[in-house]
Amino acid sequence: MFCKKWAVWMITLAFLPPFAMADGPKDLEMDGVVVTATRTESDLLRLPASADRLEGDALKDRGAGDITDILSTLPGVDISGGTGHSRQPALRGLPESQTIIKIDGARENYVQKAGDAQTTILLDPDLLKAVEVVRGPASTLHGGGGIGGVIAFTTKDAADLLRPGQSFGASLRAGASTADSSRDGSLMAYGRSGDADLLAFSSYRDYGSYTSSDPDRAKTRLSGDRQQHLMKASWIPDEGRRVSFSASRYEQAYKYPDEGSWYESEQNRFLAALELDPGSQWVDTRMTLMHSERKEDQFNNVRNGLKFTSSGVDVQNAMRFAAGPTRHRVVVGGDFYKDEYAPQTDSWADPPGEGRDGGLFIQDEMALADGKILIISGLRYTWFDRSGKRSDAGDGSDSRLNPRVSLSWNPLESLGFYASYAEAFRPPLVSEMYTELDFMNPPVHIRVLANPDLKPETAKTREFGMHVSRNGLFSHRDALRFKAVWFIEDIEDLISIKTLKDLDPPHSFERIVQTVNIESAKRQGYELAATYGIGDFGMLFTYAKVDNRESSDKDSWAGATPGVFQSRIHYHFVETGLRLGWHGRFVESFKAEGKTWESHNIHGLFARWEGRSGSLDGLSAGIFVDNLLDESYRAYHFKDSGAGIGRNLRVSFGYRF
């Protein structure tokens, strides 16, 4: 009922006449262009999908010390608690394995479900130029794993930082946070010579004791650090050609003295990209090559070590043409990735194996009636195979077609509707198919069986949405944007661990478990977003919730989430360069798997300043407060990850020249 009232009210506003000479503010978060959803530039508000893009001031206002701090402010995104190395994002309530992560156009395929799961995203926030989040099925364009959606990061390069007429520049930043007793800093140097430019980046952050929002506010003793180093070069001989290369290294290490546990990892990642756009309607090509190596070593009662290697290529070409009364934008392409898992210890939780995934896709965006009607249709053929190197079980493989179609109708410049249908899937992981154990501790006998016959998880999603866009609603200086999305989803063959035989002393001392396809779920969800700005004042409101309509396993979470209302308010003092703001996150109570998550309200404040002229030009400072009232809460996530963060004060100072 709440969502229906909002939609009716916004449709009414769309028909009101605009204020004379309306131009509106120019920095609304829901304006702009998004690429990930269609692999081409599309208007964010009119896009027939649920998506967000953050860049510029919207990113800086978050004051993030960690990438997940940024993602947690977006609708439909839940982040697990704990420290940075274990924080994982979930889109629409689905695990990280059902979310595609991309950095500069290349997939990050590392996902670990056996043992202690670690985050896929190894990226310093200071490197981030923009982040796009597309909620909902994405397998048609991006391959397996996209049931929940896609999170795509774009990093900065020299061209983003050099001022007009500048051939060399540098920036440095230092900061500190109270909740995790951390100190951090980064240094960037960048320059251009002729047709080439270069960016060098280095960052470091150390951690101390961590204060959660537990009622007793007990500190978790922690010592650790993380660092990232990157070199990024580009060659741009003309407007139609661009070649770029980057190499980065990410290291992190954490120790928990009270628990006697520790975690260390390092990743080397290499990326090469070619872009061709000679001005022809038939050629707009992008190709990305990626190779990464990630090593982990951890101890939590048992020592585990893993080396994960991933190599891949992603290529696409966009064509634009007219056919009678219709205009077309067609994208064709393909991708291939090979992943290798090599355990560094004898742990059964990290079986050695290989995974190969590839696919071909085509998508047509057809515009009719002067652009008022847009039909997007796409199809992808995908195949995968998995093999276990120390398992007697055979190889596992499968292939399938994933279609997607959407219809958009924009009867007014200020009003539009869409409906879409898409299918997506998530292939099983090597660890899910080939984890094996035969353990005897008399009289108990425990066996974990491999399962090379695991089928991929599949989803069929129907989605409906509308948007309203108004400039000059009450003044020539104001603007309103609104978008509402409702989706219905059927997920089949959810992968889970099943106990085939349990301990029953004194009759049986044997337990047998295996990863199998046992669950199905029917879900529906709602996502609302509204932003209003007048002059230098702006407001943003979002709401997201996923309901479990039906599940074959009544005790399963089945991808449901609590309702989450978020709001942000800011004011920009343009002449002084000062931005002030407040943000809130209001979470409804929620029950799942026999547990209850209490409702909670989290408030935050920020003040950010950038010098604009004279001796102050290039200076910046920020103060960011999270969980202002020190609310005690547990953040809901697909895994129960404990209490959220306590009150946190973060300060940051920077200089750019």
Give the CATH architecture: Beta Barrel
The CATH class designation is Mainly Beta
Number of domains: 1
Query: Share of helix among residues?
Result: under 10%
Overall SS class? mainly beta
Q: What kind of oligomer do you see?
A: single chain
Rg, please? 25 Å
Our estimate of the beta-strand percent is: over 45%
Give the distance, in angstroms, between the N- and C-terminal Cα atoms: 53 Å
CATH-level-4 superfamily name? TonB-dependent receptor, beta-barrel domain
Overall pLDDT metric? 88
Poorly predicted sequence stretches spanning 5 or more consecutive residues: none
DSSP strand tally = 37
Instruction: Kindly identify the CATH topology.
Output: Maltoporin, Chain A
Largest β sheet strand count, sense and barrel closure = 22 strands, antiparallel, barrel
Shape: globular
Domain TonB-dependent receptor plug: 45-150
Keywords: Cell outer membrane, Membrane, Signal, TonB box, Transmembrane, Transmembrane beta strand, Transport
Subcellular location: Cell outer membrane
GO biological process, one term: siderophore transmembrane transport
Can you describe this structure?
The chain is mainly β. It has a single domain, classed as TonB-dependent receptor, beta-barrel domain (Maltoporin, Chain A, Beta Barrel), CATH 2.40.170. 5% of the residues lie in helices and 59% in strands. It contains 6 helices and 37 strands. It has a 22-stranded antiparallel β-barrel. Strand 35 (600-610) and strand 36 (619-626) form a beta hairpin. It starts with a helix and ends with a strand. The model has no long low-confidence stretch (mean pLDDT 88). Belongs to the TonB-dependent receptor family. One of its GO terms (cellular component) is cell outer membrane. It is a multi-pass membrane protein. Keywords: Cell outer membrane, Membrane, Signal, TonB box, Transmembrane, Transmembrane beta strand, Transport.
